[in-house]
Write a structure and sequence with these properties.
By secondary structure, this protein is an alpha/beta fold. The chain has 6 helices and 9 strands. The chain has one domain (3-188): Spore Coat Polysaccharide Biosynthesis Protein SpsA, Chain A. The strands form 2 sheets. It has a 7-stranded mixed beta sheet, sandwiched between helices. A two-stranded antiparallel sheet has the order 2-3.
Length: 189
Amino acid sequence: MRLGAMILTGGASSRMGGEKAAMDWDGRRAVDRVADLAREAGAELVITVGPVDYGHPFVRDDVPLGGPVGGILAGARRLRSAGARRMLVLAVDAPTIVASDLAPLLTEDGAAFDGLNFPFVVGAEALPHDAEAAWPVGRLIERAGLTRLSCPPSARARLRGANTPEEREALLAELSERDNAQTRGDACT
């Protein structure tokens, strides 16, 4: 398998005030939108990593609420065992990302955007063998030797995702506008 993807769903959602993965984003759960995005980006296997099974292939965090690196390590073990050579790591709180946002990451062996921890692409064997669940994501990215790419300003909010209700409302408005523009464009063809 050339590319596998993991969606991190294990955060506490304390600032959002609700379970991010199950939140409705224009008629669909966040986790389903992100899974579809991963498949559109070329992932042959898409798994979720966290404390709850959302109906996709699922891996439980080693340490519940133990931080994103613990989830990444658990997900990486599963994707490597399935034969993934590269892994796309996505956060469930960014369900409005579009495939073109990910394109720069997918052309590299391992890359992340400047100033963002997610999304990123990493070689299956590039994760440091001494990585620990408590590490900050930035340290994992640095130690894995990922290239840091310039983040397109027009995509920054989508890539960063929503951690608060206010951020969610702004992204929902953008999503609605994008969907309306596509509908108008489809009606003209």
